[in-house]
Amino acid sequence: MPRINLLFLLPLALALSGPAAAATGHATDVDPRIGTGGDGHTFPGATVPFGMIQLSPDTAMPDFRHAYKWAAGYQYGDSSIMGFSHTHFSGSGHSDLGDVLVMPIAGAVKLDPGDPAKPGSGYRSRFSHASEVVQAGYYAVTLSDYGVRAELTAGRRIGWHRYTFPANRPAHVLLDLRPSIYDYPGKVLWASLRVHTDGTVTGCRTTRGWAPGRELCFAMRFSQPMRSRELYDRETDLPYKGFSGPGHQAEDADAQNGRALVGVFDFGKLRQPLEVKVAISPVSAANAVANLDQEGSGWDFDARHAEATAAWNKALAVIDVDAPKPARTMFYTALYHAMLSPTLSMDVNGDYRGPDHAVHRAQGFEFYSTWSLWDVYRAQQPLMVLLNPGHSTDFIRSLIAAREASPFGILPVWAYQGLETWCMIGYHAVPVIADAYVKGVRGFDADAALRAMVASATYKPYGDLGDYMKLGYVPIDKEPEAASKTLEYAYDDWSLAQMATAMGRTAIADTFRRRAANWRNTWDPKTGFMRARLSDGKFREPFDPTFAGYGSDYTEGNAWQYSWYVPQDVPGLIQAMGGDAKFIAKLDQLFDVKVDAAHFKNVEDITGLIGWYAHGNEPSHHIAYLYDYAGAPWKTQQRLKQIMDSQYAPRPDGLSGNDDLGQMSAWYVFTALGFYPVTPGSDEYAIGRPFVKRATLHLENGHTFTVSASPLDDAHPYVGRLTLNGRPLDRRWLHHAEILAGGELHFSMQVEPDRARGNVASARAAPAGGAGR
């Protein structure tokens, strides 16, 4: 692990002073630096809940061959900052964005970022973590090469900057439209830059990145008048690496078009801070101006900072936690990370861009995008259903709207700013919708949702669904990662059946409930693993259950990790594996075997190993709870403590893998509360054990639900007596409706495991509506 700056461990109040944040509220418990080191891929900059703007420092925007660790633009171990851009993913395993890069410069201006190993070779600047202040909705740092104090905050569509320059040096702001996270030659297809007579700067650029043909526009204003400006097209003789080269000189002070545009805005020597406000739009520069006019009035950075803090205090107040400071910091930072995505992707007039690249207008809802659905359907979206069902309504309406604008007529797979990337597998928008509907979320057109779900589940060209529907499995000789796809399609089918059942659509429910049993077509009783079959029905040979990577049967995993993926029918899986004892023994083997992490050196996402269990990647996230289903809940409690102790810490490198748009963090929040949605689409949660002394959920319906535990310490890791509203609760699952009704779930913790509770069939967790229930 990288060396951690000791100042990180001090309370934020002892950090270099900036504008005072609210003295109370859970925003003060958040530390956005968690996950900015190692493979967490989070960003430290300013944003608001589900906001369109993620204004954050970029320490590097390397070429696509080396971009993995900089998926969020920032790595805690770096020593220089390239600039501050306005869009970032939080915790993704792939990179893009980094739009509208701004850099304040005092003194001489260089037009290229330069080499971070050669200070002074470009416009980037060194910095020290000792000068950083990192809070929910606020970021500040001193750019030591310029002596400039940079402060950032954000609104929903506006990024706010405040730069304090040395009084004796000329102040400049550089705007670079060339760089992008996950950069490669020719990524910028076209860009425009214009200075209007009132000093407003507008522009757009189109890129062929992860979502090809993505267009983003912006509008920028300054609190002080420009003394002069220069707009450059740097494309001539422009090499790929470092942007260096002679380029064109300034051709126009008012407007410029091209593929390598840079603007430099000069303000002379300033005796007061310069404020900058930037609005973005996925549609047009005119819409960006409208966003700026409506949401960016005035010049009061401190007021905007206070508003961002208040937005986070309101969002985080949904849960009050009693825990020691390190645990509280970890909890609220996890909750913060879980509330960053999906992001608003709509202008103030309702315009948004759809997957057809056309402009659409939302009627009566807000359009959200940034959907890492393979990740977030597991816990992040179920957490929003529990805590923010009002947001869930808009999220689902956004998914339906995206499907209606799709040239393929299916729901999003991995989309951002309205556009599709086709990354990852499954049709996991289906369980997101089903989980919300089964748990009572309304306000969207359920019939349109069901049509979209069926269309997605029957679109033959996607992921070889044609063969899946014909054969009952995806054949590995036709489609890569076929075992994983068969398993995930079967679960998605089950969740679709759940919603159809809840709507009284019996024929649809029956069709997809039958398809949900297709997981059995990957089960090989001879080896005891899920495997891929060929078109002729034979399992592919040779078979190595430890093999992962390109060409394997699995997606970001191996047979040890994927053979547990039957959340819709865990009792059936237990039976297939030979019953409780053999199932538990194999789970123990998964966790206890010694595995060299070098085994996965070519698979970046498989991290956080405990045996073969890989907490840094999502296919493992439900596995520790499976002991509940086999009558050994004390082993779930034991494994959860092992995971919480080893995979999370309140440090920059405190996430064992990509946060994946809040999924890793949502797992932490649920687990800390003592229950987890093993099977989204069911109204049940598997009960684990809590990791906070007391947590009170302030639910949207006005009720409160409290989880409490005593004594809660390392000496008492096991659950003894469990009560719900004062009455004994012997089962190891909890209904969603029981939480919404309010009350208290109390865990009496003890030294030794209680092997008598939870082992009878009626006490075991099992998804409602699942096979075997």
UniProtKB/TrEMBL annotation:
InterPro entries: 6-hairpin_glycosidase_sf, GH-type_carb-bd, GH92_a_mannosidase_put, GH92_N, Glyco_hydro_92, PNGase. Residues 30-281 form the Glycosyl hydrolase family 92 N-terminal domain. The keyword Oxidoreductase does not apply. Residues 287-750 form the Glycosyl hydrolase family domain. PANTHER family: PEPTIDE N-GLYCANASE PNGASE -RELATED, SECRETED PROTEIN. SUPFAM superfamilies: Six-hairpin glycosidases. This is GH92 family glycosyl hydrolase. The keyword Phosphoprotein does not apply. It comes from Rhodanobacter ginsengisoli. One of its GO terms (molecular function) is hydrolase activity. Pfam families: Glyco_hydro_92 (PF07971), Glyco_hydro_92N (PF17678). The lineage of its organism: Bacteria, Pseudomonadati, Pseudomonadota, Gammaproteobacteria, Lysobacterales. Residues 1-22 form the signal peptide. Keywords: Hydrolase, Signal.
